[in-house]
# Entry
Amino acid sequence: MLFLTAYKKVTAEMVPIERWLSRADENIQQRHRPLVTLSYAQSLDGSIAAQRGIRTVLSSPESLHMTHYLRAAHAAILVGIETILADNPSLTVRLVEGKNPQPVILDSRLRFPLDSKMVLKNNLPWIAHSPPEQLEEAERRFFREKADALEANGVHLLPIPKDRRGRLSLPALLECLAGLGVSSLMVEGGSRVITSFLQAGLVDFVVLTISPVFLGGLPGVELNGVIAQGGIGEMPPLFPIRLREPGSERLGDDLIVWGEVS
# Structure
């Protein structure tokens, strides 16, 4: 009964995801990319995990219901390969009724494991990777073999060019996804992915779950790391980023904060 009450509260009173995503078709026509919702859970001190590569559960059961509701509202869901290797997530909708979003994985060197839950449960991802010609010669043979194995298992590969920092170009990826019919994308992490989308100015909406715990671990937004790598110096300084008409409410033991990026 508690979960049902929380679910109704989310759909009726909290995050206005339907209103946000009602602009998806117009956005595709004007900006040629999906609307992007950034959604993840963090501790009071801004940590999303105890340490890199270690799965850490922060959301309350009620907040997890909200997360699955958000998943069902989006056409696709994106995470980085580090999240796959650490958590082996299904990225499906299980706690509410709704359709599974299309999983999209950022994985420049095709480290995606063939025995992942997504493959075993036939929730086959699209994997964004570096074009083979942009890899070192020693990596190309392994890459070709892994690509053949992934495609044999039904995984769809998306070659995406690199940006000036040598990372997969997020604008090029979003344009590719729009061409494949994806009008809305939910970005769940990890920290480097979260930072990259914010830094590139590609986040339209934010839904943040704040757990009442001090973790002292891996930050969700790695500003120091980005600065050290020269990333902000190569792009317009977008921080600080503010939310327009922010809302907040308690859900279970957590605080949910949401808003549109101004």
Notes: Residues 33 and 175 are 5 Å apart (CA to CA).
